[in-house]
Amino acid sequence: MARHLSSAALLALRKWRLDDELQCRKSYRGTKPPGGARAVVETLGLDAGALGDGDLSALTLPHNSDQFTSSELETLVNIQAELDRLNSTVGVEGTLEEELEGGGDSLTVGETVESVVTVVSEDHGQGDVAHSPEAILPEITEETTTVEDMDMHEIEMSTPSPETGDPLQQQEISAKQFTSGSNNLTFTSSTVTSKTTGSSIVVIQSPVSSSASVTTSPSFTPKHVTVSAGQLVGKIAGISSNVAISSVPQFQSLAQTLVTAKSADGNIVQLRPANLNRPVIATSTAGSLTTANLQGIKPLQATTKRPATGTAGQMRNVFAKVIITGNQQGQQGQPVMLATSQAGETFCGGQPIKIISGGGTGQSNVSLLGSPTKAITLAQAQQMGLLSPAKLQQILPSSPAKQSIIVNKLVSSPVKSPAKITMMPASTLVKSPTKILPAPVSGVTQLKSAVSIASAVGGIGGAVNTTVKPLLSPQKVIIRQGSLKPGTILTSSGGTGQVIRIPATQNVVGTSGNIPQLQVPGGRQFQYVRLVSSSGSNTSTVLSTGKSRATTVLPVNAVSGGKPIALAAMRTQQQAVKMVPIAPATTAVRTVVPKSAGQTGQRILIPASAPVTQLRAGSNVSALSPTAVNQITSGTTILPSGASSYVMLPAQYVQQLQNQSQQQQQQSQQQQSVLNTHTVSQSSSNSGIGAESHNQSRPSVGTRTTLEPNGIRPRKPCNCTKSQCLKLYCDCFANGEFCHMCNCNNCFNNLEHEEDRQRAIKSCLERNPNAFRPKIGKGIVGDERRHNKGCNCKRSGCLKNYCECYEAKIPCSNNCKCVGCRNVEESCDKNTLRDLAEAAEVRVQQQTAIKNKLSAQIQDIAFRPPPPPQGGTRQPFNFMTQEVLNATCLCLLAQAEEAERLDSSEEEAERFIIEEFGRCLVQIIECATKTEANSMPM
DNA sequence: GAGTTTGAAACT
DNA sequence: CAGTTTCAAACTC
What we know:
Elements: H1 2-28, E1 37-38, E2 41-47, H2 70-87, H3 93-103, E3 108-114, E4 117-121, E5 139-146, E6 149-152, E7 155-158, H4 167-174, E8 193-196, E9 200-205, H5 211-216, E10 223-228, H6 232-237, E11 244-247, E12 258-262, E13 268-270, E14 300-303, E15 316-326, E16 336-339, E17 353-357, E18 376-377, H7 379-383, H8 389-398, E19 405-406, E20 422-423, H9 443-459, E21 468-469, E22 488-492, E23 498-502, E24 525-533, E25 538-545, E26 551-556, E27 558-560, E28 563-564, E29 578-579, H10 619-622, E30 639-640, E31 646-648, H11 658-670, E32 691-692, H12 731-734, E33 739-740, H13 754-767, E34 776-778, E35 785-787, H14 804-807, H15 828-862, H16 882-901, H17 906-935
Parallel strand pairs: 4-15, 7-17, 8-15, 10-17, 18-19, 29-31, 32-33
Antiparallel strand pairs: 1-4, 2-15, 3-5, 6-14, 8-9, 9-12, 10-11, 10-16, 12-13, 16-17, 20-21, 22-23, 22-27, 24-25, 25-26, 27-28, 30-31, 34-35
Helix pairs in contact: 1-2, 1-3, 15-16, 15-17, 16-17
The chain binds a DNA duplex through loops.
């Protein structure tokens, strides 16, 4: 199947490209110079019905990582080369059509199919670019599904800049009609990729709501994509790059947006999730992406065969992948804007997309094919939650060499903790102090993911210099402080649509008073939030992980005053931020309460799942600069570590339920003088509220046993008194959480004692490398849970909560060393089932015996010597004696019981009984006939 | 709520 | 690795 899909994908891609070529030819004939820029945008539909929030399984790619091998990439390259030849050929429509006809037959793709739409800006003067497989990775998942609908979207690409070197290109861009006819291919474009200068690729992956919403539903709003050729990528990756894109597509259902960019060095950087429902603005200041060269974008929305049971309201995940290959002549400072026209320009499906060059003079002089860079799709990895976006970003940008990464399918595992993979790009590891991560994540998952990624990368040729380390590896990330202006709105659309708002008027909670707040309404967990702002570009990425396994990437759109904020406007500050992800074993509620009183540093708290999240940062944080900030894991907490250092914590630790957040706000209001306690709690599937105890201002919180609004039992606050909450005695610490709202004394399990905490973590890990891993794991057999270490109970009989096994509601296993254990698995259930089965079988046998007996009785009655005829021939009804009737009724009853036993429906039972009755009648008649026959001679 | 019990974690 | 101590949660009153 995988191979089949792969072939289908290739074929689809081929067809699509040919079709696109044909359309481009038709649209731009005469105006488009040979080798002119070409832009194609494709959006793919992904049925949300199959992909519920958090249901990553739907996103699971059936094909292995080796599905798209280098040879297949070669094929793609060849296809591209063919297209190039076609470009240079006049009057190829017929051929193209033939190609389309031939290649488009019965193309079936998975329900979750991703195709890459390529915006290619071919180089006019630099045609010597080698044709290499660029970012085109149709990602096909699940079973093959025939595409029924294909909605086309128009993408308008315009270069407002009068300085555009090639007027023809402008003209071409103005001509935005790409009305490629119906396609029978379902593509799920999960990424929008713009490649500039032959080496820069921006991938914007934006799942959108249902296709209806995308194509016809008014809910789909035009989106702006401002591609900033700026230095965002480069800054993030620590390498020079000319590409910067901030996109904010919105996903209504399975919100996973992946925005990646490939720097000039060929590094792939995930920039931000795209929200198709929301304006996406990218500003290319460096001009590396020249939209002038982009002739068109052909958005394609594919609708899978899955019956559209829902209206627009039903969410269909639509991924838009746009690959923009622009020929840039090295001119910088040309803003490029890719925006969907809000005017509602409809293109076949009515999804308008505009690509507007921001007046830069840069020209895209790079042929799409010419780019040596190859396929890039790590979206699935993220979507599956296997590869945290943060990690992805870290990995991709880190490799200095041009890299092609294909991550078709990583390990699909329930993603309890968003960040399960610790990847350390060598280049990104800078001088920031090493942080020991408790990272009590599922080691298996992590390892698999890492391996998968590594293998995937390696399969492409090992061009990626990515260092993937298993969990517990220290992760160093330097994030430079940028400017996050108040009034910035980070818009993310998850299933509920989330908005991180940094109102300009919003009061800063921090002591500095300039700290903006990021409010993240909605109950989703943000896997990470990346705030990237630089002179060149700003990228804010919010990755949200829903409660479900699905890893959701929420696009964050920096908007000022409701309008897109020019990312370039943000200034860059060179404060380094240390990211210290502490991955809990599970998506436990994490709460981080930064106490910033008197501290010069700032902290940013981004609750993972809190409906309302506040991100508070010190005055310095307000200027959190994206330049160096690649990503901030959701619920990331940035705390000052030194004058310019910040420690960023994963979102899990800072999630907060909305009500709690509100309560905290109220408390904070009441305690304005304190201004130190900010609580962001995050709820998780299995854990409660994280708690951080502050000796100074911590409000005394008693044991909270009440359930959260979502029904999740909040985590109990600890009561540590002597351990400083830096020993595994402390549950908070053991769970990799910060203490918050605890009753502990002299707590060091907080941000203020990060060094001590890290030291303690290190110590614990030295004693037990698995100290922070979940104690309860799955047994060898099946999904049976078992205590990894086992209990050692002596007196409790393992029937009290002293016993960890009993507390976890799992029977003791062989790992346990308990004495007098009574916490044994009851096998009565199985016996009961067996007994029931046996009883049922016996019953059936009994019923069968009864039926046979009755039948025999009937036979006996039938062949009983007839009574002396009393004036007339014995008719069949004469056999309807009381005995026969009784026997018949018994047969019918037996049949009814049988039907009941089989749990048959009423209709079936009736049918059985009637049939039985029919057989009885037949028997009676036959008996009568035989009796008649026998009596005839007589 | 105080005191006791219990077992894991830490220590020797 | 085993024994002891420490610790905090669970439990009892």
